[in-house]
Design brief:
CATH class of the largest domain: Alpha Beta
CATH topology of the largest domain: Creatine Kinase, Chain A, domain 2
Number of strands: 14
Largest sheet: 8 strands, mixed
CATH superfamily of the largest domain: Glutamine synthetase/guanido kinase, catalytic domain
Strand content: 15-25%
Distance between the termini: 28 Å
Amino acid sequence: MTTSPNAHERVASFLKEHPKIRHVRYVIHDYHNVPRCMLTTSSRALTIAQNPTQTGAVTSATSINYCAFNTGHYDFSLMVALADGDHWVPVWETLKCTTRDDQAMVLCTIKEMKEPEANWFDRDPRSVLQRLVNKAKDEFGLEFSVGYEIEFQLLKSMNELEAIEVPAEPYGSCSVRDPSFDVLLETVETLEDSGIQVWKYHAEVGRGVYELSFSPNDPMTATDNLIFALETIKSVAKQHGSHATIHPKPFETAGGLGQHMHISVNKGELSDSFLAGIVGHIRSICAVLMGAYDSYGIRDHVFGGGLLGWSMGKTAPIRRIGESRFEIRIPDGLGNPYLQIASLLGIGMDGVRKQTKLEMKGVPAVALTDEVAKECGITDRVPASQKEAIEAMEKNKEVMVEVLGEKCFETYVQHRKSDTKHASKMPKTARNKQIVMNI
């Protein structure tokens, strides 16, 4: 992973264009999708960009990327105190203004200095995705477009697990007239000003629930934009006196929030084998797509009763739109999005590599019952728990190591097992409050 030779010019030009900026936020999203950041002054950022081999990163004292959890605990078996620290290497192409006039934000890759140079970035989610994108192009000439949908809910405060008082009408005009809709409007305006195109936005099912849909882009840019959008949503909500969360079910009566992903492949002749790879292995990556202990058993209505099939409509969790576009409706906001999209691309590529035939039939426009599933050749269900999801991931280790890399796979499994052990001992309300605070 290298810094662009034009990094200094890029940062200098950015700061000249935005003279009020005094602070730069360096941001990562850890294995539990908790945003973490460090800050420097803008002058220090310029120095970092100017001398990438000497001062090209900011440093954390521990392996925070995978030793911390959204429930607030830390796994000391994973928390390595590093002599040289983990280096957060800024990707200056992602430098953007935030909702504050005095702060900018840049996304980072994580270089683990305790590892040999060849393995510096093996556990870094952003680097895992980039490796898969490069491999797809080199091996098969495959390129992807990715588009995200974000569903979020506005709560009365960070400490109250209760939605704001607003009508719970999907697509309801009554929501547009509510003052809370300003959060959505200001978010869209901020994103558009930053060069991130928003295609559609509206009220969703549930009190204070809204959805944003983004224009497609290459996988890395689309996911970088998603990270920036999530930060913008939370910041704008806070300015309006509410708290935004993407927790899939922050309180018992909540309807359930998702984070759907759209993937298009550039070679239609490979789309059947790509889809075959997805339906054949998707149960193995549910531990990534459904990113935490509290992801399970709450959104089965989205999944056709939990049956893992595909359809041309919305009767199954995998939707085929035309020949070579796919909507994956399983992911939620508790998983790291770089690892989520990397896992999906990786299992699809496994189907292409092995020229897997698409034997599963598409679900017709009827309810996905057990009888329909049998006719279509659907045999798998969404795991009922994180423990079950981890077991499915380990059972398909050979493919998962090919997708994520050995170090990332092993660390991820250990991280999820630790989450299950700790989260299962916490009261559900305590877990929800901690997660809502972070995500």
